[in-house]
Design a protein that fits this description.
Length: about 450
């Protein structure tokens, strides 16, 4: 069988790791993975429900796919497929829609590639998606996203993820360690630990068996991997013992991404987040006390219902004073079947956009200040394989993006470098350094 399959992924890192794993299922069944433009027999589109206009994006990708290969079999999986299977089934040219509990059985479902006017839908209630299916992204040799947790038991009032991915469940520590070793042996230097609510790691069969900190300690012993990053962790789950451990670890990078969402306790309450802003500020202070050069990224949502000008200015000032390195700014948008969508005090679109713009500018300022604080310092860089205008990029341990003239020998190598200056495009220029980097 010489069948070809191509993938398109929308959304988060978890989706990327799952697309890679689905790709391996196809390869094991004899399919060859090809580029989207390479006239595949099957297209798999892994969708997201968090991104705005998920439906429009999905529609567009299907249209493009069928332009390339009009007779190809089109399958849609992912969060949007779980939440709105019927809506997707109405998109012309879609042959099959698979929900959260079915997506990893995709190869078994695709038996006949004949296009059928009636779209097949396999979509059980999300409560059926209670098994943990491991996944990791492959293909990019430098960095791999390793999924160790899925689903979420929190009920943030704006979020559809628990509806799309089900309840919290995790891999075992033994299996995650085994996968990390395997990934390391394949030549990958850096793993990004990924999950929906990663800090909640440790639930299996509906019961808590381990804690995230146990996983961190176990992975720290994996000699095949040089670097491990924690993709994102809720502030209430980022405990002192984790911070203290990372501060002394050679493998866990001094880099945290911690969702804040709002700097107003009133809004945090409406969002049903499980902390107040004081806890967040304490987490940041603790990290910076132990790791002054640690990079800290922040997720923040603007325009949540009830967010007054004062609330927003409070968030802005809070972030301005906080010693963090960059922001990921999300503009609130109503999601069906969420409590927030029913709340009073909707913020006009233009105000949402204005607030988003202000925080984007603040983020640029924060990033630049963080980068400036790193100049004249020596750090270890892992170089990536990209090439743009004759330059290649890499990241320091504390996630400063650096650039240097492309040299194929450097790809996927760890080198010590001196950070010299910020280039006009915002990346940091480096020179090689003989100095040993002290971890
Ligand atoms: S912690 Fe909140 S925002 Fe994150 S996935 Fe769970 S419900 Fe959604």
């Amino acid at each position: 069988m010489n069948r070809k399959v191509a993938f398109y992924t929308l959304g988060c890192k978890l989706n990327y790791s799952e697309t890679s794993s689905i790709g391996r299922l196809f390869n094991n069944a004899g399919y060859q993975t090809v580029d989207f433009s390479d006239t595949p027999d099957v297209f798999v589109i892994n969708t997201c429900s968090v991104t705005d206009h998920a439906d429009k994006k999905c529609r567009k990708v299907v249209k493009e796919a069928l332009k390339i290969s009009p007779n190809a079999y089109v399958t849609i999986v992912g969060c949007y497929a779980q939440l709105k299977p019927k809506e997707i089934a109405e998109i012309p040219g879609v042959d099959m829609v698979l929900g959260a509990a079915e997506k990893f059985q995709i190869v078994d479902h695709i038996t006949d590639l004949t296009k059928n006017p009636k779209t097949l839908i396999y979509n059980q209630p999300v409560s059926e998606a209670n098994e943990f299916i491991p996944a990791w992204s492959f293909g990019d040799r430098t960095r791999t996203f390793l999924k160790v947790q899925d689903g979420c038991d929190y009920s943030c009032s704006f979020c559809t993820i628990p509806l799309a991915r089900g309840s919290s469940r995790s891999d075992t520590i033994e299996h995650a360690v085994e996968q990390a070793r395997e990934i390391g042996r394949s030549g990958v230097k850096e793993i990004v630990l990924t999950g929906v609510n990663l800090g909640d790691f440790g639930i299996r069969g509906g019961e808590r068996r381990d804690r995230f900190f146990d996983l961190v300690k176990a992975l720290d012993e994996v000699e095949e991997i040089d670097r491990i990053r924690i993709s994102s962790i809720e502030p209430n789950l980022l405990t002192d013992d984790i911070i203290e451990f990372v501060a002394l670890s050679k493998r866990f990078m001094p880099h945290f991404h911690i969702p804040l969402q709002s700097g107003s306790d009133k809004i945090l309450g409406l969002m049903r987040r499980r902390y107040k802003r004081e806890l967040y500020a304490n987490r940041v202070a603790k990290i910076k006390e132990l790791m002054p050069d640690c990079c800290i990224g922040v997720d923040v949502i603007v325009g949540f219902p009830g967010e007054t000008r004062e609330d927003f200015i409070g968030t802005y000032n809070f972030l301005n004073e906080l010693n963090v390195s960059y922001l990921h700014v999300f503009t609130y948008s109503e999601r069906e079947n969420t409590p927030a969508a029913e709340m009073k005090g909707s913020v006009p679109g233009s105000t949402r956009a204005e607030r988003s713009k202000m925080l984007h500018i603040l983020s640029d300022k924060k990033r630049r200040a963080f980068y400036e604080s790193q100049l004249s310092k020596v750090n270890e860089v892992l170089f990536e394989g990209d090439i743009k205008d004759g330059f290649m990029h890499g990241f320091t341990r504390n996630y400063v993006k650096v650039k240097t003239k492309f040299d194929p020998v450097l790809v996927n190598e760890l080198k010590t470098a001196l950070l010299t200056q910020i280039s006009p495009d915002g990346d940091v220029e480096i020179t090689e350094s003989e100095e040993m980097f002290a971890h």
